Amino acid sequence: MLTPIRATIDTAALRHNLRRVRELAPGARVMAVVKANAYGHGLEAVVRVLADADGVAVARLDEGLALRAAGCSNRILLLEGAFDAGQLAAAIGANLDLMVHSHEQLRMLEQRAEGGQARLWLKVDTGMNRLGFRPEEFADAHARLVRIPGIDPDLVLASHFASAEDRADPKTAAQVSIFDAVTADAAGARSIANSAGVLAWPAARRGWVRPGLMLYGMSPFADGTGADFGLRAVMGFETRVIAVRTVLAGETVGYGGTWRADRDSQVAVVAAGYGDGYPRSARSGTPVIVAGRRAPLVGRVSMDMLTVDVTDLGPVSAGEPVELWGGMLAVEEVARWAGTIPYDLTCAVRSRVPHEYR
Ligand SMILES: *Cc1c(COP(=O)(O)O)cnc(C)c1O
Question: Mutate which of 39, 78, 79, 345 to test ligand 1's pocket (most atoms within 8 Å of Cβ)?
Answer without folding.
Answer: 79
